[in-house]
Target: Helix-turn-helix transcriptional regulator
Amino acid sequence: MTHPSGLSTAAVTIYRLRVANATAGPDELAARTGLPREEVADAERELAELGLLRPSPAGGLVAVGPDTATEELVAAGDHDILQAQVALGATRAKMQALSGHYLEARSLRSERGDIETVVGLENIRAVIDDLSRTVTGSVDTLAPGGAQPEQATAAALPSDLRVLGRGCRLRILFQYGARRHQPTRHYVSSITAAGAQARCLGHLPTRMILYGEDCAVLPVDHENTGDGVIVVRDAHVLSFLRRLYEYYWSRATDFLQEEGDSPLGLSPVESEILAQLAAGRTNPVISADLGVSERTVARIVAALMDRLGAGSRFEAGVRAVQLGWVS
Model:
């Protein structure tokens, strides 16, 4: 018997289980469905041919949303426009028949609580892709660390443009160090030209993405964002995170605006470094916190000490406070 998608009943059953239980192995799937091990393997091959299952770096297979699989199938056949157009109609018809199964099974995974932990790079990408495709209203991002990896911005650009194309608001907060990174500036120019907003600030607490009023995604480990993410749906926590985002956004400056000097003749980066110098922080800590290189921090610290006539970092901090350069 076949499903309206053209898939076998066994393939649909395995797909639903793979979506709801990303870490389930073949033996567990066979036990839960009552299917022979060989039939489970055949069903997974059938799904993999359509791009609905893909290998995970952590081992095993991870389920992919029908829309994502459709886009990849179409892209793979794009060398022949006519065939791609024909394939698009047929593929969309198949995938639409599976959308209800995918969303229902995906919701079962979310029902485990208002806070969900997702591990594995492929699983994280699948969750982010789903949220980007279904979000309505707004996407607000904190992007600390200065210069953003070129591979990350290149991958994010098409998704961001699709979000903007649906009429959603898109805002991103960077740190000052990102302004000096040309690939990041090019990415920001591309999305702002399409209607996005981007600002800069000296310090950001962590990486975070807020998807409308529905959920937020934060890293499990701020120092290693690839370790996993936490998907938050609790209304009270989301309210706090949104207030936190608005607090930082209201204090930031336009990303593409040229850096101006303060009344004291200090640039925004110099002011941030001076404040942290007065707080007794070391160059490596300041570098990591502001997203600028240690070499840049060392150069600015030396120039500030010279302007203050200070012979040590401690003396520079004391003089900056005495002169009212930092509060």
Remarks:
- The first strand starts at residue 53 and ends at 55.
- Strands lie at 53-55, 61-63, 115-118, 138-143, 169-175, 197-201, 208-211, 215-219, 229-232, 253-254.
- The chain has a mean pLDDT of 81.
